[in-house]
From TrEMBL:
It comes from Microcebus murinus. Its main location: endoplasmic reticulum. Pathway: Steroid biosynthesis; cholesterol biosynthesis. The lineage of its organism: Eukaryota, Metazoa, Chordata, Craniata, Vertebrata. One of its GO terms (molecular function) is 7-dehydrocholesterol reductase activity. Belongs to the ERG4/ERG24 family. This is 7-dehydrocholesterol reductase. It is a multi-pass membrane protein.
Amino acid sequence: MAAKSQPNAPKTKSPASVTNGRAASQGQWGRAWEVDWFSLVSVIFLLLFAPIIVYYFVMACDQYSCALTAPVVDIATGRARLADIWAKTPPMTKKAAQLYALWVTLQVLLYMWLPDFCHKFVPGYVGGVQEGAVTPSGVVNKYEINGLQAWLITHLLWFAGAHLLSWFPPTIIFDNWIPLLWCANILGYAVSTFAMIKSYFFPTSTKDCKFTSNFFYNYMMGIELNPRIGKWFDFKLFFNGRPGIVAWTLINLSFAAKQQELYGQVTNSMVLVNVLQAIYVLDYFWNEAWYLKTMDICHDHFGWYLGWGDCVWLPYLYTLQGLYLVYHPVQLSTAHAAGVLLLGLLGYYIFRMANHQKDLFRRTDGRCLIWGRKPKAIECSYTSADGQKHHSKLLVSGFWGMARHFNYTGDLMGSLAYCLACGGGHLLPYFYVIYMAVLLVHRCLRDEHRCASKYGKDWERYTAAVPCRLLPGVF
């Protein structure tokens, strides 16, 4: 959606938008004020089964060579019991705990105590102290944007320690993969629980908190919008990008090193996964300042969904392709490899250029060229929570004239490329594109529900001009 991010939420007449005496006008900002039965069931399901899903995928690779149905078949036929599978699962070790503690400590230090210097000599990079969007209470948080710097330093230390000084083997992450899972879970649950306690007793901004009467929903979706400790440590920005996303490329490198150790070579499929996912990771850190104005930072509150998700779900399930290729090395034909590379690069190009077009349109207030032409836009207006009327524009040119969320289309193309690099032997590596499709479609619907409430009939004009969400002519 190409509308300019706004600091305040629109007014709404929804009966579910008023609780504890709060204005209904705030109902569309961030997560829900009240919880319907479907949301509650979904929350409880995820709290119960998301950790099991992660364990199941990792266990299936460790004990069943990534065959997803094999554990179920073994249990159903009596060849194995749950206790047998659990008994074969590596426990948390002292070494893994030390490694994980060192890792998190390093990322905290790089985030908190090393001001960004990349923006001083890297042309076009926006780093250093940047402002986020205005919150519903009128707060404008400042952030030290130094993710690219943290990524570079971390990887330099990795190569120096593993390859130059031989302090540790480059396979160290794979070799401790399941013990590290328990450490990541401990951190995920600890930070989520701390964030909830903090929101009750010492919130960063009381006016940016959202409470419901349901404990499980509060715990999962979060209460505080931007929980912080001190002036600079922002929970949401830190856990959204560090330690999970910084680790993503290191995890893939460790998987590649394990493949080299086991089979004497790194296959072209493993190279493709490493390269394409590294492009995505670097894009995130290059545009970290831009992400301050996205839904993740502006609207999502910080709870278990982000805290545990960033610590466990992201590093363990977003890297399944590399893990799979350790157990099933795939050497693609030249044509297959070229096709995967082309799809991945095309998807990235669409993702990045669509976001660039939207950002350019916002920054110039439409006084720019998109695809060599003056952009077309739909003028719209809305009323903010303070009763003031505002005007905005919805872009209908370039990629945004093809579909209302064409940046997500590019993201899905890239996700599919990661999976296709693994061939067609197993379902497991395709979990990522299936999950991303569900996630992005859900995000489309959330975004459009918010925009429909915000812009009213102007939004109807926009959807009539751009009828498709993701795939032109299809959806």
